[in-house]
Design brief:
- The complex is a heterodimer.
- Chain A is mainly α.
- Chain A has a single domain, classed as Cytochrome c oxidase, subunit III, four-helix bundle (Four Helix Bundle (Hemerythrin (Met), subunit A), Up-down Bundle).
- Chain A is built from seven helices and no strands.
- Chain A is elongated and about 60 Å long.
- Chain B is an all-alpha fold.
- Among the domains of chain B are: 53 residues; 33 residues.
- The longest helix of chain B has 32 residues.
- Chain B is flat.
- Classes of the chains: A mainly alpha, B mainly alpha.
- At the A-B interface, helix 1, helix 2, helix 3, helix 4 and helix 5 of A face helix 1, helix 2 and helix 3 of B.
């Protein structure tokens, strides 16, 4: 171990020219780019299934958009609380950072609860993964697959946020947590960004 | 014996932090775009116009989140180029699928559409 690494345990032994702050940040970007390809493929497949179907239902008439518009607004709010958490940490205020991380996780948890309610309502109305009363069976398949995949990301994000909040609380030096909070934020904003596309493509178009 | 490699410089007291833009302004722009998106689908306009507007607004929102919330605006340009790659791959995939889609559309045009059932009450 180099002398610097021994004195500053949070300093990594080498720097990435793309993300000089940490290798962890570059790692998260690599993960997000791979994940984005996954979502992109799913959405492109959704577009192809829809374009080739003669009886694809009009999504906003079947799914309803009042609740999902509110859910979209909620995720945007949670993105703001996430950047505020990072901003407070950069000013050295761990407590406010933790408060904003808590509100971010709460926003995510409410989003997942709303999605569970929406799924329950739609399943009760007849929308299933293998068919529905309004038209193409793939409508339900793609809906549950893509919103479910996104919902899993949000659930993982809530757990990640709670873990980050605990680490921030344990480390007395705010600077030691900055990279971790920033990397957590990257993941959370990505989840928000993907929902923006899902909301437009699967509910509004 | 080779000389030891020079030690890396010690970090600043609070590490390397980003600029923090006016997040509330970004929030309001995102909120207004979301309201416009929901409103535009009920506007008396041709469907193609509505779709183009929805696509443009969604891309604008995604770009704002990536540039300011994910701080891509303040990162190395190369990272931004790499981050946009999935979008290019998705567009490429659409063009790969298009020929098949057009062929199937031509075949399905001859079919009669199935009458739709009543939509459920909105959640």
């Amino acid at each position: 171990m180099s002398q610097v690494a021994a004195v500053h345990p949070t300093v990594e032994p080498a720097e990435s020219p793309l993300t000089p702050e940490s290798w962890g940040k570059l790692g998260m970007w690599a993960f997000l780019i791979g994940d984005a390809v996954g979502f992109g493929t799913l959405l492109a497949a959704y577009g192809a299934a829809r374009a080739t179907s003669a009886d694809w239902p009009i999504p906003y008439e079947v799914l309803g958009i009042n609740l999902t518009a509110a859910m979209t607004f909620l995720l945007i709010c949670s993105s703001v609380t996430m950047v505020k958490a990072l901003e407070w940490l950069s000013k050295g205020d761990r407590n406010r950072c933790q408060i904003f991380l808590f509100f971010t996780a709460l926003g995510g948890a409410i989003f997942v609860a709303c999605q569970a309610y929406e799924w329950g309502h739609l399943i009760h109305a007849g929308l299933h993964i293998d068919g529905n009363p309004w038209g193409a069976a793939l409508f339900g398949t793609t809906f549950f697959l893509i919103t479910g995949f996104h919902g899993l990301h949000v659930t993982a994000g809530v757990i990640y946020l709670v873990a980050t909040m605990r680490v921030v609380g344990r480390r007395p030096d705010p600077a030691a947590s900055y990279n971790m909070v920033e990397i957590t934020g990257l993941y959370w904003h990505f989840v928000d960004l993907v929902w923006i596309m899902v909301f437009t493509l699967m509910y509004l178009l | 014996m080779a000389a030891p490699a020079p030690a890396a410089p010690a970090p600043a007291p609070h590490g390397r932090t980003h600029q923090h833009p006016n997040y509330m302004m970004i929030f309001w722009i995102l909120a207004i775009l979301t309201v416009l998106e929901v409103g535009v689908i009920f506007m008396p306009m041709p469907r193609i116009t509505i779709n183009v507007l929805l696509g443009a607004m969604a891309l604008a929102k995604a770009a704002l989140v990536a540039a300011y919330f994910m701080h891509l605006r303040f990162e190395a340009r190369t990272l931004g180029v790499i981050a946009v790659t999935p979008l290019a791959i998705a567009v490429l995939l659409i063009f790969v699928i298009l020929p098949d889609s057009f062929a199937i559309i031509k075949q399905t045009e001859k079919r009669k559409p199935v009458p739709a059932a009543t939509a459920p009450a909105k959640p």
